[in-house]
Write a structure and sequence with these properties.
42% helix, binds pyridoxal-5'-phosphate
């Protein structure tokens, strides 16, 4: 109960600027909202005709919605628990047959030749970069509008992350701005299909081909998303995924690399297993450790949970896409609400998050923070999304670290600092509003509640001053 009340208080009053994406998803769970409802939200609040006219909930009126949205994660008690218990009882908990089965099924689902399961998405990225020979002295192009792990993985392999502004309409790395940032040191582009919306892979790959760069897709939010019918994660040399708790395909912590190049995948496999010889990396001789390696193998429990979760991913993705399209059709009519745009090449989005931009000038100058508070009070969990992660102190601290100062000239470190200025990325941080993927698992009526709440706030915007 204490936990539920804490969540409720967070949900109702906390400034979302301070909430991480993961905390945000936790606070949108059924328990939090049910508690909110029992703590004084008026009954019959789904009568939108009344609530549209009435006072805003944040000012004491009836909220549009009191029922919770679908919670996350979901599992089937009857079907999903037995495989995990069976792993426990087998006593084989480290990587073995279950993980291998997950890899086969995931590769097949992705349309990739191979898959390697990892401890998490961060290590999938690090492994991929390292095995593509990206390291000290190199530069990798990446968007600042991403989760910190994309940038950390580049730093961790000793390379410099060079920021490329996102396109504010699509939230994705802007292909028009890639070439300006390329130097003789550039070795890779890391497109991040951020929020589960595909980046423009035709143009990114064209730039990569022209400049002989490798492409490592950060598809950590983009399971089953597609570009021209091909799955995100299979469009570059390697694609990386995350299965962290909040993700559309969750197992607590987990990750994967997919790829078609056997030699490269053998290298990734060896790296993720202490550098032990594998496939073309070499036969076991001596102690069998052939290359510099890490240990980031998935456990059998993670594999068992993922195999169960995968069974519902297709259906859930369909539901998210259908609801997202409907929600867009409704909220695009509200002045000041600018829905995200999908590129023409997108044949499917994964919708880990549903984003739009909020133009406060069309809301009589009501700041985004007040809009968010009003929307939460109407019973719709929402967040302001990413802060300027590229301006967090880790970035400067990495550049100032002993090893980076040894590895790079002052001139190169300064250039990395200068290029870290991304006005369009900053703008997205200031204007974005997100709904988490579990909201999109509801009904069309749920989407109507979201849109009704937003319309209500628009109609009563003057009362928010
Ligand atoms: C875009 C992006 N990249 C990388 C990661 C890292 O994944 P993980 O948390 O599994 O290490 C995440 C996950 O949070 C992510 O959202």
């Amino acid at each position: 109960m204490i936990l539920v009340q804490t969540l409720m208080l967070r949900n109702m009053t906390m400034n979302k600027e301070n909430l991480t994406r993961r905390q945000f998803i936790a606070t949108t769970s059924a328990g939090a909202l049910a508690a909110a409802a029992s703590q004084g939200f008026a009954a019959n609040a789904n009568d939108t005709s009344t609530s549209k006219k009435g006072t805003l909930a944040v000012l004491g009126g009836q909220p549009v919605r009191t029922r919770p949205f679908p919670g996350w994660p979901v599992w089937d008690k009857d079907k999903d628990e037995e495989p995990v218990i069976s792993v426990l009882r087998s006593g084989v908990w480290s990587r073995d047959k279950v993980v291998a089965q997950f890899e086969r099924e995931y590769a097949e689902r992705m349309g990739a030749k191979r898959c390697i399961a990892t401890t998490n998405g961060t290590n999938a990225l690090l492994t991929s970069l390292h095995c593509l020979d990206i390291g000290i002295g190199d530069e990798v192009l990446v968007t600042p509008y991403t989760f910190v792990a994309s940038i950390q993985a580049i730093f961790l392999c000793g390379a410099l992350p060079i920021m490329v502004d996102p396109d504010p309409e699509t939230f994705q790395i802007n292909p028009d701005k890639l070439e300006d940032k390329i130097t003789e040191h550039t070795k890779a582009i890391m497109p991040v299909h951020i929020l589960g919306l595909p980046a423009d892979m035709d143009r990114i790959n064209a730039v990569a081909r022209k400049h002989k760069l490798v492409v490592v897709e950060d598809a950590c939010q983009a399971w089953l998303a597609e570009w021209k019918g091909r799955k995100c994660g299979t469009l570059g040399q390697l694609g990386c995924f995350s299965f962290q708790n909040s993700k559309n395909l969750p197992c607590g912590e987990g990750g994967a690399i997919v790829g078609d190049d056997d030699d490269l995948m053998d290298r990734c496999y060896a790296y993720h297993d202490f550098g032990r010889g594998y496939g073309t990396v070499g036969q076991v001789e001596g102690t069998g450790f052939r290359i510099m390696g890490n240990k980031c193998r998935m456990t059998e429990y993670q594999g068992a949970i993922l195999l169960a979760q995968m069974k519902r991913l297709e259906q859930q993705t369909e539901t998210r896409c259908r609801n997202a399209a409907y929600l867009t059709s409704r909220i695009s009519k509200i002045p000041g609400i600018i829905p995200h745009r999908l590129y023409d090449g997108v044949t499917r989005a994964a919708y880990h998050l549903y984003p739009f931009r909020y133009d406060q000038s069309r809301f009589d100058g009501v700041p985004r923070g007040k809009f968010l508070a009003a929307l939460k009070a109407e019973g719709v969990p929402c967040s302001s999304g990413y802060n300027r992660v590229n301006k967090d102190s880790f970035f400067e601290n990495a550049l100032r670290s002993k090893n980076f100062r040894k590895a790079y000239s002052q001139e190169r470190l300064d250039r990395c600092r200068q290029l870290n200025d991304c006005p369009d990325g900053d703008r997205l941080c200031d204007e974005a509003v997100w709904f988490s993927q579990n909201l999109l698992l509801g009904t069309q009526g749920d989407m109507d509640d979201i849109a009704d709440a937003m319309e209500k706030i628009y109609n009563h915007r003057s009362s928010l001053h």
